[in-house]
Amino acid sequence: MTEQPSPAFTGALIAELAKKTGVSWLGYGSPPSVHPAWHLWYDDALYVVSGGPEQALPGIEHAERVEVLMRSKDNGGRLVTWVGRRSAVRPGDELWEPVTAALVADRLNLDDLATAAENWARTSTVSRIVPTGEVLEAPGSLPDDAHLAAPRPTPATTRGALPRVLHRRVKRRPKLS
Q: Is this prediction's pTM over 0.70?
């Protein structure tokens, strides 16, 4: 029988994974749905921006309990799934300025860094997810199932027929002298 990791080890693992990776999977709602989300680990909590022009996390503003699945940056394997308590960070809160400044610094491909926080205040939700200490999966207690699910239906289609390959290119080896 494998030994369960200590709460201190699990807490340190969560913090380290959240700092090293930029994406986690958030499960919430009833029935539960799982969504990939870019995040920022700041002040011992996970922060995500959703809605408006940012990532779609439908219904997260109504969730209180969120399951956060984190994967290894090295091989993509599941490492830990923990439960967090979600709350909103609103403009005017004492956390708003430092958190949005950190999110702007961490966010890739923003159109305008100077107005990003203002745009988030108008169109998006900034969520703070604080670990509750409840761990569903951790090293030594990971299940064997693959957590596979059928893709969600989507109206997306291709623009036309896929290109046809008439012949393969000949791969020539370089002459070695």
A: yes
